Amino acid sequence: MVRGILGMHGGKPVRETYLPYGQQQIDEYDIQAVVDVLKGDFLTTGPMVQQFEEAIAKYVGAKYAVSFSNGTAALHAACYAAGITEGDEVITTPMTFVASANCILYQGGKPVFADIDNGTYNISPKSIEEKITNKTKAIIPVHFTGQPVELEEIQKIAKENNLIIIEDAAHALGATYKNKKIGSIGDMTMFSFHPVKHITTGEGGVITTNNPLFYEKLFQFRTHGIEKNPRNLLENHGPWYYEMQFLGYNYRITDIQAALGLSQLNKLDSFIKIRKKYVDIYNKEFSCLSEIIIPKQLPQTDSSWHLYIIRLNTKLLKCNRKEVYEALQR
Predict the structure, then answer these.
(1) Which residues contact 5 (CB under 8 A, 6 or more apart)?
(2) Within its chain, how far is the Cα of 70 from the centroid?
(3) How do residues 186-235 score in pLDDT, each as one tens digit?
(4) CA 200, CA 203: separation in Å to the nearest integer?
(5) According to the UniProt entry, which residues carry N6-(pyridoxal phosphate)lysine (predicted)?
(6) Best exposed site among 124, 136, 165, 243 by fewest CB in 10 Å?
(7) Are 73 and 205 in contact (CB under 8 A)?
(8) How confident is the model at residue 4 (pLDDT cuts 50, 70, 90)?
């Protein structure tokens, strides 16, 4: 489209090349960080993983961070740590990727979908309250597009009903709610490091928490349920001894990935700054088009803008999503 004229109405493209959905930003510092690990002694289960976790925890303001092979694995681990089991209900949103609900199913639980807010597209606290039953165990709110949910209201609901909050913040690394970083507030928060996210480790995820019990469960779950800490062992036969105390998974991240993530994390704030620059441009250009409704940002939140979602004013624009998509391909 050109300014003020939609492609649906004959507007010509403003770009000569196709704009991809998302793409990683890798520089020479990232490459060198990975090469240094490849030349070192540890490719996995080494010191770089712990350094990356500590850096993530420090950035968001949490006490602990546990990394995983991907965001889905991280959500699965969080559901385990929360004690989700067969028959439990967990309230979440349908406006998300499938992993937000699948992680509940992995533990034998039942996803219950609450409605969303018409302005932010985030889960509605009012709808959450309406969905609570005596089987409800937890809430998984999703900070959709990077826009934080109404955490204060959701925390109040959770406290009144003795529920655990697992925040799906795959879109929201660097976002804030009432001047606090997402990842420092709820019981557990998941971030994703897929290549289209704010920073990447190729594939990867992390859970941040301030709860030491959740931390220990998460840490053990990602390594087959194995326990090595002497104070948690049922028996102790020496420094070589360990126990598999429950059925866990191999959800570990490698030192190679952690090195890339640590290098990327150093640039996160600059990445978000660039995103906000483009948001300002989009808001300015799209605000003159009555056929498009631009994203709403709440005053107490600061989105990290993983996505910029537009809504079509169907009273003025007589077409469907597929037709709009095809117009954008021209």
Answers:
(1) 11
(2) 10
(3) 999 999 999 999 999 999 999 999 999 999 999 999 999 988 888 888 88
(4) 7
(5) 197
(6) 243
(7) yes
(8) low
Q: How large is the angle between the packed helices 28-38 and 255-265, nearest 10 degrees?
A: 150
- pLDDT score for 8: 67
SS (HEC) of 179-233 = CEECCCCCCEEEEECCCCCCCCCCCCEEEEECCHHHHHHHHHHCECCEECCHHHC
Identify the three-state secondary structure at position 294: coil
Task: List the domain boundaries for the chain.
Answer: 7-15+269-329, 28-267
Alpha carbons 249 and 127: distance in angstroms, whole number: 34
Compute the distance between CA of residue 123 and CA of residue 82 in angstroms, rounded to an integer.
20
Phi, psi dihedral angles at 189 (to 5 degrees):
-135, 130
- CA 258, 105, 175, 46: dihedral to nearest 10 degrees? -10
Q: Does domain 28-267 have CATH number 3.40.50.300?
A: no
Place of tokens 């349908």: 94
Residues involved in catalysis: 197
Give the tokens for residue 114. 């609450």
